[in-house]
Amino acid sequence: MKVGGVTGSLAVVGLGPGPACWLAPEASAVLEAASDIVGYQPYVDRVPERAGQRRHASDNRVEIDRAKHALTMAAEGRHVAIVSGGDPGIFAMAAAVLEAIEAGDPEWRALDITVVPGISAMQAAAARLGAPLGHDFCAISLSDNLKPWSIVERRLRAAADGDFVIALYNPASKARPERIHDTFALLREVKSATTPVAFARAVGRDDERIALTTLAEADPAAADMSTLVMIGSSETRFIDRPGQTPWLLTPRSYGVGR
Ligand SMILES: C[S@@+](CC[C@H](N)C(=O)[O-])C[C@H]1O[C@@H](n2cnc3c(N)ncnc32)[C@H](O)[C@@H]1O
Fold it and tell me: Does the pLDDT value for residue 154 go beyond 90?
């Protein structure tokens, strides 16, 4: 697409949750072909270095500046890949890029922009756990950087009321250590004490740790910023296995009984 007389492109690329074997072939090809890699430092570090390719690593929480920088370079004719962990459309850079386009230079709308999907943390965690997302579920980020905490509470209550399985992203960080404790306190008011809970930490990485428990027994402090917390519905159950961690199952049929 020609913008200002030059041809450039921007791909918003999902890197998956960690290991290279979970990177989609399309994502690999786009990363190889890019003239510039843009992203949060730890994600840029996951992209193999290539001769002649420029790398622009930035701090976390500067997503809009990063998106504008990537769009500016694409408008100058560069072939830019902006990288996200997991899927770029889930709590990640695809929305930041479109927000920057919506508010920015009208010429950016004519750029060649693609979103390349990746495996999201909840999918990777679900694969390790068995089949916790076999029925209706929702994803809620516990970060209140971009939304008031009151809306998180409202959504947690609504998700519990609707008996969804709940995948909790961004459960805790150094700046927000208490929100996961608040979340468990709220869920304990409205859901059964025996509800299965899983802490899936650093899935696919060397320091992966999976822990299964119940809502009553869960220690919210087990969650950090690399953890996906899965809260079951009333139908979610453990399937015991000899000598191994049980599977987690949310069956496809609701209310049929066991
Ligand atoms: C800003 S969100 C990005 C989500 C990402 N776009 C995705 O689709 O997975 C970051 C959160 O994703 C979750 N996460 C990312 N990678 C993970 C992994 N390998 N294992 C468990 N959770 C992960 C954690 O909850 C983390 O706080």
Answer: yes
The token pair that represents 157 in the structure block:
């209550």
Tell me the pLDDT of the chain averaged across its residues.
Answer: 95
| Binding-site residues, ligand 1, Cβ < 6 A | 17-18, 84-87, 90-92, 120-121, 125, 169-171, 200-205, 225-228
Contact 210, 129 (CB under 8 A): yes
Rounded distance between C-alpha atoms, residue 168 and residue 138, angstroms: 9
Name residue, tokens 């089949």.
131
Q: Give 238 Cα–ligand 1 centroid separation in angstroms.
A: 24
Question: How does pLDDT run across 119-137, given as a tens digit for each residue?
Answer: 999 999 999 999 999 999 9
Specify the ligand 1 atom closest to the Cα of 169: 25
Average pLDDT, integer, range 28-53: 96
Residue type present at position 215? L
CA distance 153 to 148: 9
According to the model, what pLDDT value does residue 58 have? Answer: 87
Give the pTM: 0.96
